[in-house]
Amino acid sequence: MNTRVFFRGNARKRAPIARRTGKKSGMQLAHEQFKLFRSIFVLAILLFLLLLTGFVITLGPLNISMYDAYSALLERFLPSYFQVDALTSRVVWNIRFPRIVGGLMAGFGLGMCGCVMQAVLKNPLASPFTLGISAGAQFGISVAAVIGFAIFGGPYFIIGNAFICALLCSLLIVALAAIKGATSENLVLAGIAVNYFFTAMSQLLKYFASDEQLRIMTNWGMGDLAAFSWANSRILLGIFLICFPLLISRSWDLNIMTAGDDAAKSIGVDAERTRIFIMVISSLLVATIVCFVGTIGFVGLVAPHMARMVIGGDHRFLIPASGALGSLVLVSADAVGMNAIAPTIIPTGIMTSIIGVPFFMYLMLKGKRKEFWT
């Protein structure tokens, strides 16, 4: 018998048997296991945030146990099963829990926006604040405090200026980059130019400001969750529910763009259009966060790097993981700032850097020597 014909016939017989058994290759099994690990990692962070919320509520002058903290939260939805005294309920719902909710939403938004900005700009130092968005918001606050001009009146006298100027700053960056082509290099250069310009304008207004006006500008620039309320949370939640699905919908495009613009175009992804879309949507979310909590610049930079070190660069998992880690960093830092030297409260923006930078450096030194952001 011809040997070649014999083995060819056996190969034909074996192939259907292998398909029927449903066996997967080692590479497929490893991919599915890592995919499961990434899903578990994100769920574990969310579960830890739930536990952290109960613990942070217990911190403060009024002694509240974790059982009372969770009971006060559940009492609003299941009053027949959970009951706490009126004072505990008011402290939890009116003072402590709104601040935590603000930290969770602001941290999630900053971490998520930092992740997508680093992806579209291909720059590990990109964040919502290194590109000038915070500088635009600071300029809006300076105009309201020193000149007295505000776009909105009433309770939104100051934060309205911060939102509009931060959003206009972002749109100016996109417009400048679009004139020369919305490449990652042009966006970064436009962001640096706009950042320096608005920073200089804010410094000029500070030079003519009175002591009271200077105090308002300085306190807002430190970043704090103290002014966050349920009314603010509804506005931020509405913007978040719009922006989060839009950013997640571009996960595959972001994965493809990591190979370069030319490779993305060959597959059918318009890199420049995707880059502008991501920058506009993330800028809208960041501008909303900044106008309520001020400048908290470290979270959007470090949270994506922490997530990348653990779960890799698949943006289907990296975007929610970066947001969850951003919430974890911000809520933890705010809790430490409130209780480290009580009754004095350290601004949240300061504590995020004091706590987060050493931890981030530890992860960098401990991790393997490779590029985590590509």
TrEMBL record:
Cellular component per GO, a single term: plasma membrane
CDD domains, per the entry: TM_ABC_iron-siderophores_like (cd06550)
Keywords: Cell membrane, Membrane, Transmembrane, Transmembrane helix, Transport
GO MF annotation, one: transmembrane transporter activity
Keyword Transport among record annotations: yes
Pfam families named in the record: FecCD
Main location class: membrane
Primary role: Required for corrinoid utilization. Probably part of the ABC transporter complex BtuCDF involved in cobalamin (vitamin B12) import. Probably involved in the translocation of the substrate across the membrane.
Name under which the protein is recorded: Cobalamin import system permease protein BtuC
Organism field: Methanothrix thermoacetophila (strain DSM 6194 / JCM 14653 / NBRC 101360 / PT) (Methanosaeta thermophila)
